[in-house]
Amino acid sequence: MEVILGSILQSLNRTIIAGIILAILVFIIMAITNNGFDYDRNFWSAIFRYLHVISGVMWIGLLWYFNFVQIPNMPNIPDEQKPAIGKVIAPAALFWFRWAALATILTGLIVSYLNYYIVEALSFGLLTNGASSKSICIGIGMWLGMIMAYNVWMVIWPNQKKALGIIEANAEEKAKSARTAMLFSRTNTLLSIPMLLSMVTAQNLY
Description:
With 206 residues, the protein is mainly α. It has helices spanning 2-9, 12-33, 41-73, 82-114, 118-122, 133-163, 171-202.
């Protein structure tokens, strides 16, 4: 057993595949104990909510990694070691960061559509016959999330490409871009706190 687990856990790809297989087994158990699923709108809502949560964990997890770990500790890293962060770690983290942001928004919009509240939530009831407290709360979270995703793709990523040397820029442009990316990353960290509050508490509202 130890050899098998060691073989699986030494590879990220095998670890992810094993996790997916376990998730499928859990799904099968749920289907059996529930006398099967009705593969209707509610079913697909649950599937996309699961994907939404996974994407969100990746996105916000990396956002907080940048702001709680990488950025504060960069001054403590010896200069000769900093290229490893800028050339290897940061680009890889930013890849998952920006695509997780997009996946979180898209799956969230799909969930809101499948649950019939997308227009009500995004318009705060202005385009419908009013809105429930739940929809208003979710709407706040949705708008905050979309602002954050916009910052990721339109501000943070373009500036990080300059700061990390992925695209050509002089020293002054790199410094300016690094500061801009940091400030908007901090802005997203700020917005993530009320965004998560609105999304979580909305589940207990009507």
